């Protein structure tokens, strides 16, 4: 089984072989010499270094207390999540799955071998607690591909102890700088090894390459915008690229069942689909429509897990808020059993989707689309007019849906109409998000207004789904000889929440119409 460790560290380079006196760092009472450890690590990547391009590292290391396979994902500057698996001759399946969104069908190969002599010191406080681990690493790097270049250097690492205060690293750095030690120019040993062992005239890639040339749309292209965003296409493609990156980066989190990851991935999928539908005069729909179809499929599959997650949280919170006198029977246990069963099945299905050929081909197609965009008639225009017109078109459609819903009497037809308005609200919000860098404050204000409306309509739709689930749970409880009273109480409260949302909608919508500046 793999486990995950949050790693917070800083790297330094120095012309000296010895560490300065670190007992002068505030808070450090003693420095304990842990001796020298010999480490031997082989780093794996694709031939075109896809993992390195996204600052992800995968290695098999022997020596030290944590020998095994290590997969590191960037979290923030100097912060990485390290996922560890036991030492084995081949890459464990669970780690291979976590890099699949980045490597796709490309083979993982040994690219760099690092052999290090690590001299370790522990910085302890007055109570003997570990504050940080400082190591001086003498590194020998060997490239395992191409001409097999070599390099050698010495560096200093300072890694914060588990649950330590990151501010402590600032104190250590202040002391190191006074002694002439300076921050490393490379983000990692691997990055430095790749740079220093690269054949003359070559450099490691800095962005993920497009893949699957066969997936690239086969049609005549217009010139692709380049440089700083200027045209309508520049801004639309920047938004598309950000959502493509989100899909790739969230894939491992979804596989690990990290809270909210499914929701965030689903939102990125919807943003992409909405962008292709809204900006049809910028990106040719002949190419983007099939991609949007696959994105709709992916969002639907992700929704099976996300919808259950939202319902379970809503019903659990509502039950916890009830007075004990209104809770009859094992309602909490039945709700927990329902939640676990639904989630287990949904998560397994989502993981299977992320391994599917259709999903991986979709990622390839998005790469190809960004590498060679299907620019349409308005692609090269100035963004103000083109993007404003597209956003306004979505807003006008939303206005018609809201008006229709408000004209209907309470009931199923109105519930359906409000749900359609909610979906159009999201699309209008995403359109405004894409246009905001070009249109400025009016678009940003529309994003805020749509977010507020989305919350109101979302609460209504969640109430509709919660009432349906409560009716199902009540029927099961009744069949088991349990009281269905509490389910009825919760159903009534959900009905009231829906009524409150419906009553607030006219005023909220009037306010939005008056304040919209686009």
Task: Give keywords.
globular; alpha+beta; 9 strands; 8-stranded antiparallel β-barrel; 518 residues; 18% strand
Describe the structure.
The protein is an alpha+beta fold. The chain contains 14 helices and 9 strands. Strands 1-5-4-3-2-6-7-8 form an 8-stranded antiparallel beta barrel. A hairpin with a 5-residue loop joins strand 3 and strand 4. The longest helix has 39 residues, at 441-479. It is globular. It starts with a strand and ends with a helix.
- Mean pLDDT over the residues: 91
Largest sheet, spatial ordering of strands: 1-5-4-3-2-6-7-8
Class from secondary-structure proportions: alpha+beta
> First CA to last CA: what distance?
53 Å
Structure summary, number of beta strands: 9
Net shape: globular
Outline the biggest β-sheet: 8 strands, antiparallel, barrel
N to C succession of SSEs: EEHEEEHHEEEHEHHHHHHHHHH
> With helices defined by DSSP (H or I, 4 residues minimum), what is the helix count?
14
The stretches of 5 or more residues where confidence is low (pLDDT under 50) are 204-226
Query: Rg, please?
Result: 28 Å
Helix content bin: 40-55%
């Amino acid at each position: 089984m793999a486990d995950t460790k949050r790693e917070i560290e800083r790297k330094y380079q120095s012309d000296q072989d010895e560490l300065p006196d670190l007992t002068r760092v505030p808070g450090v009472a003693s420095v304990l010499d842990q001796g020298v450890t010999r480490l031997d690590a082989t780093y794996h990547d694709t031939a075109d270094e896809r993992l390195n391009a996204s600052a992800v590292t995968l290695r098999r290391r022997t020596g030290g207390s944590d020998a095994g396979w290590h997969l590191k994902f960037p979290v923030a500057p100097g912060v990485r999540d390290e996922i560890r698996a036991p030492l084995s001759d081949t890459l464990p399946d669970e780690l291979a799955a976590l890099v699949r969104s980045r490597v796709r069908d490309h083979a993982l190969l040994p690219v760099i071998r690092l052999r290090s002599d690590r001299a370790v010191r522990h910085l302890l406080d007055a109570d003997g607690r570990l504050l940080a681990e400082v190591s001086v690493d003498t590194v020998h790097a060997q490239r395992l591909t191409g001409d097999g270049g070599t390099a050698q250097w010495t560096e200093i690492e300072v890694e914060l102890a588990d649950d330590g205060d990151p501010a402590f690293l600032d104190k250590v750095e202040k002391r190191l700088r006074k002694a002439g030690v300076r921050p490393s120019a490379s983000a990692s040993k691997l990055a430095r090894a790749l740079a220093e062992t690269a054949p003359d005239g070559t450099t490691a890639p800095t962005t993920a390459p497009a893949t699957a040339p066969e997936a690239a749309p086969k049609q005549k292209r217009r010139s692709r915008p380049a440089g700083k965003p200027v045209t309508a296409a520049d801004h639309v493609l920047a938004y598309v690229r950000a959502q493509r990156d989100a899909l790739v980066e969230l894939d491992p989190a979804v596989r690990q069942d990290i809270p909210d990851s499914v929701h965030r991935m689903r939102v990125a999928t919807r943003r992409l689909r909405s962008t292709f539908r809204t900006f049809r005069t910028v990106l040719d729909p002949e190419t983007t429509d099939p991609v949007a179809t696959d994105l709709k499929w992916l969002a639907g599959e992700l929704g099976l897990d996300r919808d259950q997650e939202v319902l379970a949280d809503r019903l659990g919170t509502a039950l916890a808020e009830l007075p004990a006198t209104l809770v009859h029977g094992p309602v909490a246990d039945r709700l927990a059993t329902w939640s676990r069963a639904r989630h287990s099945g949904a998560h397994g299905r989502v993981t299977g989707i992320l391994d599917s050929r259709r999903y991986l081909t979709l990622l390839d197609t998005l790469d190809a689309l960004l590498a060679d965009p299907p620019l349409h008639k308005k692609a090269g225009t100035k963004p103000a007019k083109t993007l404003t017109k597209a956003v306004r078109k979505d807003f006008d459609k939303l206005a018609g849906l809201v008006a229709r819903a408000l004209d209907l009497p309470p009931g199923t037809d109105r519930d359906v109409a409000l749900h359609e308005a909610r979906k159009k609200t999201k699309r209008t919000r995403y359109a405004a998000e894409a246009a905001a860098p070009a249109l400025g404050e009016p678009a940003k204000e529309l994003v805020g207004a749509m977010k507020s409306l989305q919350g109101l309509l979302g609460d209504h739709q969640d109430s509709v789904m919660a009432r349906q689930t409560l009716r199902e749970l009540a029927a099961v409880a009744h069949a088991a000889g349990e009281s269905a009273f509490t389910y009825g109480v919760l159903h009534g409260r959900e009905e009231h929440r829906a009524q409150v949302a419906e009553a607030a909608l006219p005023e909220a919508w009037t306010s939005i119409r008056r304040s919209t500046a686009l």
